[in-house]
Amino acid sequence: MAGGGRRDEEACRVGLLNGGATTKEDWQVVAAAADDGGGGDANLGRMVWEESKKLWVIVAPAIFSRVVSYSMNVITQAFAGHLGDLELAAISIANTVVVGFSFGLMLGMASALETLCGQAFGAKKYHKMGVYMQRSWIVLLACALLLLPMYFFAEEVLLMTGQSPELSAMAGRVSVWFIPLHLSFAFIFPLQRFLQCQLKNFANAAATGAALCIHIFVSWLFVSRFKFGLVGIALTLNFSWWATAAMLFAYVSCGGCPETWHGFSREAFTGLWDFVKLSTASGVMLCLENWYYRILILLTGNLKNAAIAVDALSICMTINGWEMMIPLSFFAGTGVRVANELGAGNGKGARFATIVSSVTSLVIGLFFWVLIVGLHDKFALIFTSSAVVLEAVDNLAVLLAFTILLNSIQPVLSGTIPATATA
Question: What GO terms in the biological process aspect are recorded for it (predicted)?
Answer without folding.
Answer: xenobiotic detoxification by transmembrane export across the plasma membrane
